[in-house]
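User: I'm curious what two different proteins look like when written out as structure tokens. Can you demonstrate?

Assistant: Sure. I'll show them one after the other, since each token string lines up with its own sequence. Here's the first protein:
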Amino acid sequence: MDGARLVYTALFACLNCARVLATLTFTLNDGNQIPAVALGTSLGHLSDGTRVLPVNHSLARAVQWALEAGYRHIDTATLYRVEDEVGLGLHNYLKETHTNREDIYITTKLWNDAHENNEVTPALIASLVQLQLNYVDLYLMHYPMAYKKDGSISLTDYLETWKGMENAYNLNLTKSIGVSNFNISQMQRLWDHSVIKPAVLQIEVNPTITQDELVDWCDEHGVIVMAYSPFGGILGRKSDAPPPRTDHPILKRIAAKYNKSVPQILLRYLLDRKMVAIPRSTNKERIKQNIDILDFSLTKDEVKELSTFNKNYRLRTPAKWYSHPHFPFEKKNLTEKEIQYIIEHSIED
């Protein structure tokens, strides 16, 4: 992963002033460049799995704010049900700034209910319609697990799904293809049986789940890691999350050294591990702060120090999918009764 490079792009902040913003990119194994900071567009979900959806084009505004702040990468998915908002925010920005579409990187994802080989391209075309685009820059298989439209388990092999991803790539509907939420054995199997190798793996990474073995595998095979949930439980949103919290002395010391906030240090930690960071926010000031991490780097010792917080803690392990033969994560110690309760009370994902 030595393909990191700085690309300097002049961005006009107003009519009479300009500033130069450094945009860090990584080189994919297919030769394309991927910007190292992406705005995440999932708005999350309620405890029963119901998706939180935008109101009054709040996400479209967030996308536009992000692009104005210097982001050149937007990450979305069919699952999030916001591709239309992403498309609106993107096109408002392009129209107002006369920026070329080619200068913005868009990632979206195939959902579990379209894993048949012949379903992949129609699913991507449907996403393109929502996004108002002719192509995306990166298309990811969201999970290795296939489901039918009625929510029941499908035994379709993700290798068969990957053939559909390769077809979409060959049709020029996406410039790169990859996967999300695959474990190391699934990645190796996919690698061994694919014609077009996956360019990206998107997984949860932060100091409390460092994913060293899987990240090392990706590094050895030239697969770029995109890191979602970059703050983990450190910002205190989960009561059962292990330490640290934002007031931890190590985090405060490193933040003070660079005159940055703790969230900015957590994002820079990912960039210095050569990963794409995916912070999500709809708050204009936080969106700006999350991209203001390109003017410093952590030392190797600081990266190692932050990694000592690793507890292999996942923010969310979807127990309703435990019974799927391709479930990619370690399973929590739940009884069949508890799992069934979760399934029955999970409205969406």
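Here's a second, unrelated protein for contrast:
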Amino acid sequence: MAFTSYYLILIYSLLSISSCIGQTSFQPKGLILPVTKDSSTLQYITQIGQRTPLVPIKLTIHLGGQTLWVDCEDGYVSSTYRPALCGSTQCTISKVNTCGNCTTTPKIGCNDNACNNTPENPFIKTLYDGGEINEDVLSIQSTDGSNPGEFVKIPSFIFTCTPTFLTEGLASGVKGTVGLGRNRIALPSQLAEILSFPRKFAVCLSSSTQSPGVIFFGDGPYMMLPNIDVSKNLVFTPLITNPFGTGSVRFLNESSSEYFIGVKSIRVNGKPVTINKKLLAIDKRGNGGTKISTGSPYSILESSIYDVVTKAFIDELSNATRVAAVSPFETCFSSKSVGSTRVGPAVPAIDLVLQTTRVYWRIFGANSMVKVGQDVICLAFVNGGLNPTTSIVIGGYQLEDNLLQFDLVRSTLGFSSSLLSSQTTCANFNFTSKA
């Protein structure tokens, strides 16, 4: 279903039920957000209802983000907005000790004796050291895992106010970001704590700019048409805690809220490539390792890793015709010389090998090759240069049509590899039929 249609449903639902939702004994099994890929920025966009009266707010998904932050400088009006005062429980939960004072008349987003944090816009690599912690109403749709249900109103959701400038680089009309990271005020943890369901969420990004993917909050089933529970065949690997912050500005006194996994080696067409194993580990300063990020549209590999992976890929695809590079990609082919399969172009699979050689995330052609011209496809990995903070960043394109379940209690990631092999996609959640 097109995202614009969901948007109209959201507006109608907020208007029609804003006076009564959240005031019944209804206990949702889980919650959902539709997520659509923006064709211009390649960001993943959702809608959430917020404020009193409720307003649909357009936000960009930030998988490793610490908070839901919103531009409060441009037209934020709400009768239920409340700043979090220094020393309050909200500030303690947010793990902030900084108190702010306004140089102007107090207003929404700027109050005396309110606690502040540092929200991040990963798309312009900028932090704002003065985001005000607040509470307000949040509305989000429930689900039984198969269909959408009624909207649930959360009266006191903790979020962060920022000035308008922090929205630079975000998709058109977007007012902030939804942080899904590993801390208590990120969306998954707050929803689970408030509504008493498991601290799990699952991300299923659609490759289409017309049909939305979905984020589930809570446990499965996660049903996709035609009646496929995509949570049934997940492979699991531990989530690794990076002891140091890894955002746009490094924090050496707190652990990262981003999601890291333990890639031990890489195979191309089933054959291991030679990699400096030190790059795959997180060192004592938080450098290295592998993280999953929607802050990058494509996967990024440290230069030496990039070189050996692309060389092996070219060697294994020796019958294909090479063509000129198309920035930011360095390895491109004529699509006429490459066949097609159910899981994308017929190219060598790239395996990210995890805790054992039998546990691996397989990247098929649908996620490894990107069309950049009428007859040109490129290997959808970017050279990250020498000495990047993180050696491997698994970007948005490699996540599309893969189900990723994050279990924050067990600290595990469940992943599907491409759902195309199961004859479904992340655009196949049934947003049109109510439970």
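A detail about the second structure: Confidence is low (pLDDT under 50) at residues 5-25.
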